[in-house]
Automatic annotation (TrEMBL):
It comes from the Bacteria. This is Endopolygalacturonase. Gene3D superfamilies: Single-stranded right-handed beta-helix, Pectin lyase-like (2.160.20.10). InterPro entries: Pectin_lyas_fold, Pectin_lyase_fold/virulence, RHGA/B-epi-like_pectate_lyase. Residues 189-243 form the Rhamnogalacturonase A/B/Epimerase-like pectate lyase domain. Transmembrane segments: none annotated. Pfam families: Pect-lyase_RHGA_epim (PF12708).
Amino acid sequence: MNMAVTQGLELMPPPFSAGLDIWSQTTGRPGTPTYDTAAFAAFVPSDPDFDGCLEVQKVNATTRLRWMQELPITPGTYLRVRARIKGMAGVLPDVAVAAWVGTAAGTELTALPATGPATALTSYGEVVEISAIIGTGARAGVDMVWTTEARRAHFGLDLTGPTGGVIRIDDIRIEDVTNAYSADLLGVVDVLDYGAKGDGVTDDHAAFLAAISAAGARRLLVPEGVFRIDSDLTIPGPVTFRGTLSMPDSALLILHHDFTLPTYEAALGNDVAGFRKGLQALFHTNQHIAFDMMGGRVNLTAPIDMRSLVGFDNANVHLVLQNGQLRAADVGDWDTVSTTRIATYDPANPNLLSGVSNVAGVPVGARVSGVGVGREVYVRARNTAAGALSLSQPLHGGAGTQNFTFERYQYLLDCSGFSNLSNFECRDIEFLCRGRASAVMLAEGGSIARFTDCDFDRPKDRGITSIGRGCQGLTVDRCQFASSQMALRAQDRTVIAFNTNNNDAKIRNNRAVLWAHFGVMGGTGHIISGNHFFAGDDEAQGLRQAGIVLTDVNLKTTITGNYIDNCFIEMSNEYAPEPNFSGGFSFGGLTVTGNIFIASGVAPWFNWIVLRPLGSGQFVQGLHVSGNVFRTVGNRIDRVDAVDTTFGTLDYNRFRNVIFDNNAYNGVDYPTESPCVVLHDQNTNATTWVVDTGDKLPFGGWARTVSSVVMEGRAQDASNATRYEMPYVDIQQGPNNDRVNLRWPAATRGRAVVTVRVDRPL
């Protein structure tokens, strides 16, 4: 910080007693006339106030004195030039520190100030100190502020005013006073020293670049002030912001060393602007994969439109937003935009609404409702020229022209503008929605969105919303979902924690409290494990809604090790444009194992596993429910499984590979089994034994297969003789097709263990 130390420079001019041939009468440049030939000046070896001095008579309008030694000017360094003088005779002049200043090439910079403050001499014999500080930063106390173009100078004095006066000048002193400005900031480069103004008007971009270049590994200091930066700025090293930056939305600010919310907040002057700039930078830097909020809170007054913020619509690198809180502020634009339009639906174009009136007024990302519209159907894209809307899922009905309602919820983070956003992760983020806003809307396309250790606190309408295919491989791990409608009855709740439209979601180890639905899941290949989701209330014999809604038929999905509390699993085909079965797959491909199912205070007709077919001809193929615990608290229920026949029924004659086994039932009147083992006691001799499955077959299905008949003990006839013949079996007997008959060649009595299945395995 001291040129004499760091650069080995001799700043102090020699005393006048060493000779006047190194003192110029003009600029101090080589070849200019010196004071050893000046008739108007002489060295005075003895003076009562000075130990040798130069006596000068002012003979010109401006009499100049310059040391001919050239000193380098370095940005960030401050020099003080001073001298003691006194008036001796005549009309006394004004005196000021002065200099010749030039570029590195030796060109004089005439536009820069060449003199410091002038001091008027007013009395004879009075010793007065003349002083000025010179440097490249507009800092307090700097008298001659130069630009970073200044690279060399010759220092001295100027005498101005009336001629004829005589003064004496003590030896001139030049000192490095940089430490007076930065003694507490050793190793810091101040942008003011490189020409930054900090006035909020001047574009300081070039000055910042110069300071950054000079800083190297040293810390950059942005002092008090407002520094306008009109274009992209990257600061690779450490930086301290005491002032703030004023930047357009499109300009990037990339802080490689201090890539955290507190630094960006300090740089932009408030939490929202800092968060926006930091999140924007995350998508544009290749130096970081994570933007760390460092536990900070951002109070949002409007949704963050990620596509507009980032400036492009396709991102496919792993990026992480972590460790902070996004809070919906008390004021702001969070109102749902709701509109109704007439549109036409044709199942031949299952993901399209055409002929939409005033289509420009329908926002992308709006949820669609109307006749034949399933849950969580969203506007995926809009074609204004064609008057058409692309939908996230087909409609199961509603063919023809009708009114549709579109509701656009407002989200803290809105990624809907991206055509593709993949590998974006939120980690340790609390979405503090406060019943004012929803949390996150995913991109229209992309894959591997992740939410890890996040809190979704009281979203107004939705936690995580997928409007298209951007939920491919969605991963939600160890998150907390707290509803904004906890005080409502279960059947009155409308908020939903998340939805999917695409395949391979991993929903693991989460906790969801009192939602309408924990998840509405389109697509297949999901893993749902280790979650606790509950949705009860205090109403006697209260109604319940589905915790998980599975909307595709052949699911390839596992539901394992969850705590399913006062809600149920629902399988539906509500995204089928032709809900009547006409070929291919029907309900199935689902494994439900090792879960805890509990319900309290529910009506007897409550069920934990519900099939909701829309249309006719659907059936079950490949459903395995095993090793679960079903338990009621308070009221008993009839059974754990049911078919909602509001819009359709099942074809029981086509059930295949349907297994309910090794489950524990408590407070359930008719435990579901298939294979169903029936211990039949025939106490009277008969040729036909009617074996009743006792309403245990899944979904009220038929007794389609008898896989074994084992006699326990002797089969006897009327004369008590042992019968060694085996009976044959009639399946699908009785008014509900849930009985089987054992047919004997003669009247027989005894005990049979009969294993009945609701399906045909082959």
